[in-house]
Amino acid sequence: MQPSDTPPVEFDLTIRNxxxxxxxxxxxxxxxxxxxxxxxxxxGLPAGKQDVDAGGMWVLPGGIDSHTHIEQLSGMGVMCAxxxxxxxxxxxxxxxxxxxxxxxxxxxxxxxxxxxDYSRRAREKAVIDYGFHLILANPDEQALMHDLPAVIxxxxxxxxxxxxxxxxxxxxxxxLDVLAVAGERGAMVMLHAENxxxxxxxxRRLLERGHTAPKFHxxxxxxxxxxxxxxxxxxxxxxxxxxxxxxxxxxxxxxxxIRKAQHLGAQVYAESCPQYLFLEAKDSDLPGFEGAKFCCxxxxxxxxxxxxxxxxxxxxxxxxxxSDHAPYRFDESGKLPKGDATTFKEMxxxxxxxxxxxxxxxxxxxxxxxxxLEEFVALTSTNHAHMYGLAPRKGAIAVGADADLVLWDPxxxxxxxxxxxxxxxxxxxxxxxEIQGWPVEVYSRGRxxxxxxxLQVERGSGQFIARSRPDPVLNRRAPAEGRGIFSQFIGLKSxxxxx
Length: 499
Ligand code: URP
Ligand code: ZN
Ligand code: ZN
Fold this sequence. Notes:
Elements: E1 13-21, E2 26-34, E3 37-42, E4 50-53, E5 58-61, E6 63-68, H1 84-93, E7 96-104, H2 111-125, E8 129-135, H3 141-153, E9 158-162, H4 172-185, E10 188-192, H5 196-208, H6 215-220, H7 223-240, E11 244-246, H8 252-264, E12 268-272, H9 274-278, H10 303-315, E13 320-321, H11 357-366, H12 373-387, E14 405-415, E15 434-444, E16 447-451, E17 454-455, H13 487-490
Parallel strand pairs: 1-4, 1-5, 6-7, 7-8, 8-9, 9-10, 10-11, 11-12, 12-13
Antiparallel strand pairs: 1-2, 2-3, 5-14, 14-15, 15-16, 16-17
Helix pairs in contact: 3-4, 4-7, 7-8, 8-10
Cofactor: Zn(2+)
Function: Catalyzes the stereospecific hydrolysis of the cyclic amide bond of D-hydantoin derivatives.
InterPro entries: Amidohydro-rel (IPR006680), Hydantoinase/dihydroPyrase (IPR011778), Metal-dep_hydrolase_composite (IPR011059), Metal_Hydrolase (IPR032466), Metallo-dep_Hydrolases_sf (IPR050378)
């Protein structure tokens, strides 16, 4: 057969004339998709059954948000306002095509029951792909010996553990137990690092003196609570040489501690979130209870801590940028459980951000020259895929990857308002901000999910992604440290492939 007689390759979808950015480079090409997977990236592809002209658009890998609280009971027993439908719809409108959310064990829960219930909720409602982390509140023998290994084998290859909150807090001994299992099995441990006793000691004294308003939430969480716990968490991780990921990093001293540990060869990774780049503690100093809309843990700091977080993203100390979307309404179901009598200690902790995560960073980071487009892609998508075992399926525009794609209009200007968002929170801490750049079309496994500002898919059409083992070797700054001499006497198995 002559080359000219070769039948043209049939694509289900082509996205043509776009300016494509991955974490490593930007180039012009067309994308050919078949059965939900990218099968060609080249110039001059023939039109597919569905042919999209992306001229003038920037085509990026779909966002991955690896820290979202969806349809989850908090440590204080409060149910989030977003279920898997509203949460994933809101994510998709903001350019995110994969979320990881938390199947949360509370102290008396059986882990298999938690997972069964959470899987059912997601399966019926999610419109984009999703995976789970397990929140572990009771690392007893059953959990350590049986449940965690089974969970990892089922594709839930990361756990979140807490150093604070009465009902979730683990002590250092328990943290070591969890880290050891994760190290043996190749899972990632995410740590909420705050010193519980520092916070409750200060909070009690504030309350005794009548300082109950939302602004005192930030006062009660001194940055030392975060930096001390982070230092301790890193020491525990170094003791047995098991990777750890510090989530929602807020403070300048904490960024510094993480950076120093990385330079020593510690296997420490870190996440930060929009609230630590774009909000400050003083935003919660508002009349009445309005400040509750800005309260999360750890709390945002000041201009200097924002600068430290930017720097941490820029120099690779902070690896992933997630929303920590914690959707609580401004009423008795969330922020104000006791109405006008609610103290800062009783408000549900957390701020919404799943839909604005990418647009805020695009506008303030890329458009204002703080980040390159490639760094934006790494922080919002590619690094999450490596950190949490989603690569090579997610996180890049490449042959063989899922066709999770976002067409960005870099010129579109938007004034943020709660009404334009698709979550069920009813407010946004970013109300009134002007941003430039918006994700105008969103594809998940080749399916058009968002177009013309309309949702195009059915509830339940998202898929559970069983994740492989995390591969967080990117951004290593020094060879991995060895363990203490004790390890040869107690038979710790190899913690990572890098040893
Ligand atoms: O305040 C926050 N971050 N609430 C959400 C729960 C958590 O600790 O991530
Ligand atoms: Zn947390
Ligand atoms: Zn969280």
